[in-house]
């Protein structure tokens, strides 16, 4: 069972209250047959622990890594993943 939006936000709040750095990844656009709909969330702490899902697959690991960079440098990012570009090979979408 996937975590609910309330579960994800509660976890983010809990980690933040305990002093951990936190990032939230959100699906803002999809095309074709996307594994998760717009509005899906993944919360990540500075240690790489996470709850939720934005892909249900190999993209998740890259999102966690990028989120840790966001936590470290404080700069938000917009990421794009597709099966027809070099990112697909880097994150394992070629499978």
Supply the number of structural domains: 1
Work out the helicity level: 25-40%
Oligomer: single chain
What's the overall geometry?
globular
What's the total count of β strands? 3
User: Regions with pLDDT < 50 over 5+ consecutive residues?
Assistant: none
N/C terminus separation: 24 Å
**Order of strands in the sheet with most strands:** 1-2-3
| Topology as a string of helices (H) and strands (E) | HEEEHH
- Protein structure class: alpha+beta
Question: What number is the mean pLDDT?
Answer: 87
Radius of gyration: 13 Å
Number of helices: 3
Tell me about the biggest sheet?
3 strands, antiparallel
**Fraction in beta strands:** 5-15%
Notes on the protein architecture:
Helix content is 36%, strand content 14%. The chain has 95 residues and is α+β, with helices and mostly antiparallel strands. The mean pLDDT is 87.
Summarize the topology.
Layout: H1 5-17, E1 22-26, E2 41-45, E3 50-52, H2 59-73, H3 86-91
Antiparallel strand pairs: 1-2, 2-3
Describe this protein with a few key phrases:
3-stranded antiparallel beta sheet; alpha+beta; 3 helices; globular; single chain
Summarize the structure.
The chain is of the alpha+beta class and 95 residues long.
């Amino acid at each position: 069972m996937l975590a609910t939006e309330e579960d994800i936000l509660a976890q983010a709040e809990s980690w933040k209250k305990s002093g951990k750095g936190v990032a939230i990844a959100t699906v803002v656009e999809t095309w074709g047959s996307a594994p998760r709909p717009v509005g899906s969330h993944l919360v990540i702490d500075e240690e790489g622990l996470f709850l939720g899902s934005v892909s249900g697959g190999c993209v998740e690991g890259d999102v966690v890594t990028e989120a840790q960079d966001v936590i470290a440098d404080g700069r938000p990012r917009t990421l794009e993943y597709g099966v027809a570009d070099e990112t697909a090979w880097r994150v394992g979408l070629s499978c």
